[in-house]
Specification:
The protein has 9 helices and 4 strands, in the order ααααααααβββαβ. By secondary structure, the chain is an alpha+beta fold.
């Protein structure tokens, strides 16, 4: 994967997310997503946070959060979701499709993964049928490493993830299958809508 390829796919992902968000009505913005505790508003605010947050503001926020990025991200997402309109959040993503932001230590592959995962948090929660393009999914899956999987703390002991639409396997044990994008969400600790996963362990990773 070249840097240009990663950045091009990230730009496409952001444009698609912005387009999806622009089609929602105001009530939809308060609907829950797969990202526990966050509505569409909070996820959109989080996606656009890197484009709207200056370095000094980020540093001060990290100090206030005692160095815990997850705590900072939650505080900022909730605050920005409360003060920014849905139109402003859409514009913040749509106007920054080619923004060069990348997460510390994650590179441009990390930026793509970030946008794909949080995009799915929204679209899958709404039952959106169009899948993430497989070439893009392959880029995200190829960037997975033990550290990134460990970050989410999902216990997959005795479970083998097997994608139906890509040559992707992760772990050993009893098979849990589904689309590659759905297995990515499993790795990220999400609970999926019923019917997206298959296998005796599917209920463990399925919400209601």
């Amino acid at each position: 994967m070249s840097e240009n390829e990663l950045r091009a796919e990230t730009a496409r992902q952001r444009a698609e997310t912005a387009q999806f968000l622009a089609g929602l009505d105001e009530a939809d913005w308060d609907a829950p997503t797969l990202c526990a505790g966050w509505r569409v508003r909070e996820v959109a605010a989080h996606l656009s946070m890197p484009y709207r947050t200056s370095l000094p503001r980020f540093v001060l926020g990290m100090i206030a959060a005692r160095g815990n990025f997850d705590r900072l991200a939650d505080r900022v997402a909730r605050a920005d979701a409360a003060r920014l309109s849905s139109a402003e959040l859409v514009a913040a993503i749509a106007d920054n499709t080619e923004h060069p932001w990348k997460p510390p230590g994650g590179g441009f592959a990390g930026a793509l993964s970030h946008d794909v995962i949080h995009g799915l948090d929204i679209t899958v929660a709404f039952g959106h049928a169009d899948p993430v393009p497989l070439d893009r999914m392959r880029m995200v899956l190829d960037a997975l490493n033990p550290r990134s999987v460990q970050y989410f703390g999902v216990d997959l002991t005795g479970i083998a993830l097997r994608a139906d639409d890509l040559d992707f396997r992760f772990g050993d044990g009893e098979v849990l299958s589904g689309r590659a994008q759905d297995l990515l969400l499993v790795l990220c600790g999400r609970k999926l809508p019923p019917g997206r996963l298959h296998g005796d362990r599917a209920a463990r990773f399925t919400g209601h």
